[in-house]
């Protein structure tokens, strides 16, 4: 069984994903929730693979289920496509919004 190699920084992720952040100053261990959320929402399979290598699969799955408070519907579907073991009914971001309509400006 191949052991996941953990990375030591997020420099391998596309900087376009973090257009509003100086990634050189980002403490990726403390900011793992917004990093994972941004990659789920806007990244592709290669970025998903990178966050799994960076944080570990279990931490990514637990973060998606228990810590990300909001993802748009399309990102929830993407998360399920990237991680087939996920169910939206187990995701906090889905439970927070399933019966509410969101009105944007």
Structural write-up:
- With 105 residues, the chain is mainly alpha-helical.
- It has a domain at 28-86.
- 44% of the residues lie in helices and 0% in strands.
- It has 5 helices and no strands.
- The protein has helices spanning 32-42, 45-55, 57-66, 73-82, 92-95.
- Helix 2 packs across helix 3 (57-66).
- The protein is globular, with a radius of gyration of 14 Å.
- The termini are far apart.
- Residues 1-7 have low confidence and may be disordered.
The tally of strands reads 0
- What is the H-and-E element order? HHHHH
C-alpha geometry = globular
How can the largest sheet be summarized?
A: none
Return the average pLDDT rounded to an integer. 83
Q: How many angstroms does the end-to-end distance come to? A: 49 Å
- The number of helical segments is 5
Helical/strand content category: mainly alpha
In summary, what is this structure?
With 105 residues, the protein is mainly α. Helix content is 44%, strand content 0%. Helix 1 (32-42) packs antiparallel against helix 2 and helix 2 (45-55) packs across helix 3 (57-66).
